[in-house]
Queue: 2 jobs
Job 1
Amino acid sequence: MKLNRRMNFFRGLIGMCLATGLVAAADVNGSFRLPFQTQWGPAVLPAGDYTFSLDHATQNGHILLRRGTHAVAVVIPQGMDVTAYTATSSLLIVGTAVRSLHLAPVGLTYDYEAYQGRKELFAGHSKVPGISVLVTTK
């Protein structure tokens, strides 16, 4: 009986690893519009339209942010969650800081912490509630 439980456990574990490997191989490109000046990691981004690219969606995926044709930042997540595949991707902004990026096509959500080095730039915006920004992915 114990042998069957162990075998089922290991089969499930191997299946999860294979599924995660397939997800991790995906490349994601997209765009979004920031409604106000926003902090994403150490980068301070003015309101406006941006594009991003993520090569090989992995736990430590580096996301290249562009405004027009100019690269403006590379952001690195503090964590990642495997989530359900949904219809829409979104960017969660709490106060003035990006807290997560959900990428629907690959079923991943990247988590970000508020960067402590730039608080003086946002002194008047601390009461801004959390908002979700629609992200268009390709």
Job 2
Amino acid sequence: MEGVIAVFALFGVPGIYFLGKTDIGQAIVYRLRNGDVPQDATLVAEVDELRHRLAEMEERLDFAERALASGAGAPRNSHIGGA
């Protein structure tokens, strides 16, 4: 157990300190101090649109997978190449 504490003290504490000095660390600190940031209505609408488009793509992918699994996408002529 002492080894775990020593490793954390050696690497974890300085790592957290230097993380706080980076841009990402500053953003984390800001978020922790101020709570949630206000949401931009345009950004929320764009994310909703992307979610809708992703759901449509998932439906199309599911349809294509079912069609391939049932053999609907297989070629009807089994003779490939040659005369």
